[in-house]
Every structure is written in C-alpha cells, then in structure tokens.
Design brief:
By secondary structure, the protein is α+β, with helices and mostly antiparallel strands. The chain has two domains: 75 residues, Beta Barrel (OB fold (Dihydrolipoamide Acetyltransferase, E2P)), CATH 2.40.50; 147 residues, de novo design (two linked rop proteins) (Up-down Bundle). The protein contains five helices and eight strands, in the order βββββαααβββαα. The strands form two sheets. A five-stranded antiparallel β-sheet has the order 3-2-1-4-5. A hairpin with an 8-residue loop joins strand 4 and strand 5. The longest helix is centred in the middle third of the chain and has 17 residues. The protein starts with a strand and ends in an 11-residue tail after the last helix.
C-alpha cells in the first residue's frame, strides 16, 4: 500500500490500548492523527520519537482496521531537549503545542509550517524571553487569520498619523474619531512594534526587534483569549 510521507511536529501522544499510541501531528497539510502500533512497548522502533514538539519525518499508511492511519515508520529530524532540564522551557513548549493544535484544523498557509519548525529550534536554543512569547502569540493569531489590524483604522479605514488607539473587540487600531471608552492609547513606537513582529518571516530575527511594552503584551494576550475562546494562561509569567 502506498505510503504518505510528511514532515511533522509532534503535538500530543496518548495510549489507545495496552500497546498502541495515538499521536497528534502538525504537518504542512494540517493536523494528522495516527496510530503507532506497539508504540508503548517498542524499545527500538519509536524510542524517544514522540516527545512533544519533536520534528519528524513520518510515513503513514491507511488501515481498514482503524479510522486513523498507521505510522509505518518515522525518522527524527530535530529533537527538542531543553524542556528536559528547564521547567520554564517545559511550560513554554507545552503551551506552544497547545496553540499549534489550533493551526491544524485547516490547511496551513504557505510558509507557516516552516516558520514553526524554525521557531521551535530558536526557542530550544535560546532563553525564553518576552520577545519569543510575544512572537508566539502574535504569529498564532496571524496564521489563524485573526491578526490585529494595524495599518489603518478598523472602522473608517483612515490611517492615523500620530495618535493611535487599540480595541480588542473591534480587532485592532482605531483613529481618534472612532475611539470609544474601551480603547487604549498606543504610541507610534508601539504600533511599529506590532507591525514588525507581524511581518517577521524568520524567527531568528526576533532578537533584533525592540522589546514589546507591558501594555502590548497584555493587549495581544487579551486578543488571543478573545478570538480563540481560550482558557489561556501564558507560560513563564513574570519574565
């Protein structure tokens, strides 16, 4: 039977019998659930492969006995190691896996999968910072189609020059004339910061960007909770 082969990010693993595992992957074609036959007992075939956020090449085949494809084989491309030794990293990568599972509900936009592969490597190799957290939350919003509008007023379409307001409920920037009692003022530097993070294509470049203000961190987190309906608690609080 013909195999389907994908690069894949491991999102979660759970037992489905005394010997089998069900593995959730994020792939370029979206979320894939597959069964690793004998995965709970294997000492060689799947050893250390299915740790959360590992990056693999998986080969899948259809089975008439299960509704999920069977993992015929898998090769490790990149093993995430820092969560083994740092609690902060463990919390961060667990949160990352949860948020990435939302991306898998549809076909990923071009470049999205490769961005997250690169992001995982950058986060594994560097200390967790507010810059990485901010990039994570903004890019999840962008790749889901919920990025805040920052180029013009969301209500009238005018481009504010010096005075900016932000509304979570309205979906982004408002001008002076369209603001309401629930908007918060932003400086031009804060608006520019939002734009730079949203436009960033290579996660390695995050360290060259300016740090987000505490106000931006709060707003983007509120935005994420509001539009995704999450009971979300950001990892690594108090960085």
């Amino acid at each position: 039977m013909k195999l389907k082969s994908y690069p894949a990010i491991v999102l979660s693993v759970e037992p489905v019998s005394e010997i089998d595992l069900k593995v959730e992957f994020l792939t370029p074609v979206g979320r894939v659930l597959a069964v690793a036959k004998g995965g709970r007992k294997s000492k060689r075939r799947f050893l250390n492969l299915f740790s959360e956020i590992n990056i693999l090449r998986v080969n899948l085949r259809k089975s008439s006995r299960t509704i999920f494809p069977i993992i015929d084989s898998a090769d490790l491309i990149y093993q995430v190691k820092s969560p083994w030794f740092e609690r902060q990293k463990f919390e961060f990568f667990s949160c990352l896996a949860e948020l990435l599972s939302y991306l898998g509900k549809g076909l990923l936009e071009e470049g999205s999968f490769s961005f997250w592969v690169s992001f995982i490597k950058v986060a594994d190799a560097n200390p967790i910072s507010e810059k990485l957290l901010f990039l994570l939350e903004l890019k999840i919003l962008k790749h889901l189609g919920y990025a805040p509008m920052v180029d013009e007023c969301v209500k009238c379409g005018n481009i504010p020059k010096r005075i900016f307001y932000f509304s979570v409920e309205q979906g982004g920037i408002l001008c002076l004339n369209c603001r309401d009692d629930r908007t918060l003022p932003l400086s031009s530097a804060e608006v520019e910061c939002l734009k730079n993070y949203l436009l960033l294509k290579d996660p390695k470049g995050v360290f060259e960007l300016s740090s987000p203000s505490s106000k931006l961190l709060r707003l983007v987190r509120q935005f994420l909770i509001y539009y995704l309906g999450l009971d979300y608690k950001a990892p690594c609080q108090g960085l």
